[in-house]
Structures are given as C-alpha cells and as structure tokens.
Amino acid sequence: MITLWFLGCIDLYFADETGFTLQPYVPYAWQKKKQTHRMFARRSPHRLNVLGLIRLDNQLTTYHREQLIDGKFIMDSFDDFCKKAHTKPRVIILDNGPVHHATVVKDKLVEWEAADLYLFYLPTYSPHLNPIEVL
C-alpha cells in the first residue's frame, strides 16, 4: 500500500479514534509503604471524541463529537470523507476495533468502493503498523 502511495497511484490514510477531556486521568501514583493516597474519579462527562485520518505527508482530516464513537459515527464520517473531491482512489487503513466492523460500516463498503474509497484492516495486535497511533 505504501509503495502505491509513493508511486502516486492512491491516496493512503491511516485512521484511529481518541478522546480528550479537561479532567486528568491518573490511574496510579507512587506512594510510601503503608500510606494510602485517595484520588476521586472523574465526575464530568464532558469529553471530545475524535476520529482522525492522516496521510504520511501529515495531511490530517478529523471528525469529532461529544457522544461515544459508534459504528454510525464512523459510517457518517466516512460518508462525508467519500464526498470530498479526489483524483485518485483512497484507501483507509484501520485497526480491528469493533466500531470499524459494525454492521452499518460493512453495509456501506460496496457504495464506498464504487466511489473509490476502500477500507483495509490491519492484522490484529499490530498498532506499530498504524502511524496515527503515535498521534
């Protein structure tokens, strides 16, 4: 796939989701023996969830929402991405997250492929193959 992108045959995007909150998340901390530190859990539900698509030349496209990311959000985002002007076939590289395999996503594959948008799933447990993981 990367060779096809370098040759200019396709536009190659790597996709993943993440979330942002203004409340820190500290799952553990250093403490002295026999001394307990208590930290209260997050109380604010406010979180910005983001789906990012990045190319190797650092072109980034994002979609966001405050609700949880589900298959419908992935489908709507890819539908919008599919409508953007393009001159080459586009390939989106994804991990095997459950939302990427949702029925609503799978039902759109034929329609997206007709518009030159293809999804490619990485092997399981291979985040090192997805450059957006470090972003």
Characterise this structure.
By secondary structure, the chain is of the alpha/beta class. The protein is built from four helices and five strands, in the order αβββαβααβ. The chain has a domain at 13-19 and 45-53 and 74-90 and 107-127. Strands 3-2-1-4-5 form a five-stranded mixed β-sheet. A hairpin with a 5-residue loop joins strand 2 and strand 3 (60-65). It is elongated, with a radius of gyration of 18 Å.
Order of helices and strands: HEEEHEHHE
Uncertain regions spanning at least 5 consecutive residues = none
Radius of gyration, rounded? 18 Å
Question: Average pLDDT, to the nearest integer?
Answer: 89
Strand content: 15-25%
Helix percent reads 10-25%
Q: State the helix count.
A: 4
How is the main sheet built? Answer: 5 strands, mixed
Shape: elongated
Intertermini distance: 20 Å
The strands making up the biggest β-sheet line up spatially as 3-2-1-4-5
> SS-based structural class?
alpha/beta
Number of E-state strands: 5
Distinctive features:
alpha/beta, five-stranded mixed beta sheet, 135 residues
At a glance:
This protein is α/β, with parallel strands linked by helices and 135 residues long. The chain has 4 helices and 5 strands.
